[in-house]
Amino acid sequence: MQKMFSFRLTSLFFMASLLVGNSGVLATRQAAPASAASDTFTPVADAYVVSTSASTNFGTATTLRVDSSPVSNSYLRFVVSGLNGAVIQSAKLRIYAKSANTTGFTVKPVSNNTWAENTLTYSNAPTAGTSFNSSTAIPAGTWVTVDVTSYIKGAGTYSLQLSSTSATKTSLAAREAGANAPQLVLTLSGGLLPTSTKTTTAALSGSGNILLMAGDICKHDLGASDYTANCKKTGDLVRSVIAANPGAQVQTLGDNVNNDTGQYAYDTQYTDLYAPNWGSFLNVTHALEGNHDTYPPSGTAPYFAYFGAAAGPKPGGYYSYNIGSSWHVIVLNAQCSQAGGCGASSPQYKWLQSDLIANTRQCVMAVWHQPRWTSGRHTDNSSYASWWTLLYQYKIDIIAGGHNHNYERFNQIDPNEQAAADGIREFVVGTGGAPADSISYASNPLDPNEVVRSQVPAYGVLKLTLSANSYSWNFLPAAGYTFTDSGSSTCH
User: Fold this and answer.
1) 37-189 has which CATH code?
2) Per residue in 124-133, pLDDT tens?
3) Domain with residues 210-490, CATH architecture
């Protein structure tokens, strides 16, 4: 039977610092390599403004626009991070032209980085500086490259304005355009090259054997409560583990941004919150949809727009991939109404059954957001009982989720939560940075066969080391926290 791979266009293997020999085995990355590497960033925000519609915002459009009549300018903001001491040798802005003009466009620096994609208009647009470069004529349907090395000097936040003297209305692809989103391509040398560096088109099916996971990651500050600090701490923790373990990958466990409707509506939070804190390792990230990733005003659109192919195929958002030499990972969408259902007659269940039949790897794990079993603030959820039963029939090894903002670990259990030697071990890892749940053991005792639950606020990530026929787990606390948990087990 054929192995099931989920090849992702935006997830590419590491370059330069990861050397592939004739055997196809990835060698350890070396610090301060002599050869250069490249790293590609997409905008965390972009929008265009029009002088004749001075109060109108065009931030959700899939295109940018430059024009001199009426005056139309575009703004882009990039966050450069994760360089790990590497030096920028060159920086190139790449824009996909959807229409043509014979003049091209001019690039200007913008020192004000506080503008917001969903509120930017011609009336409130920040002032641009002096032009430092321009493109040549723009053919339609091609990538246009402009050197911006004089502006991009190191890690930081950079805003750019694009304008044109041409009276031809010219459309350029915006970040909402997916694969044709604008790119900032850096050529780097020295240091320990960034974990997001990539040069090949190999899919992210897994060379390493380390998978880092957490859910419930980023939330805006509310009043005096500092919620963004812990999101940054867990992002820093992930970066440090990846730097020490080239080839490590990341699996989010949903609620990647943990915001509600109203003042903190989440539409821009992937770019404003997630990108600066967890975005630097996006190219080694597998995304999972949580309930907060589906909220109004735009539903799942911002989630799929930000993660792209890493979120799985739309609209279902469920997929699978392989990692290491022996492991198969299944990503399920517990937002049942978004995925066409979760029950035994649903398309997702039938896909899961087919995926399990097709799998030839010994060790298997599944992840979804709301846990089937938990003693946390949100209680056991029977919506996923049919999944657990099916996965138990195929003797899978691990199930992991989030939703409760704590850490929990179970012994191996069957579909009735009873101890079983051939059972599934469940982890709840809702510790990515959103405000923790403090659950009392007295009022919320542990579930049957539950071993560990963090009792005080704990932030961090679960590190799974996936071997040929076994695995070990280690909960890594973020800076300032001390809770840990570790152990190991064999695969069924």
Assistant:
1) 2.60.120
2) 999 999 998 9
3) 4-Layer Sandwich (3.60)
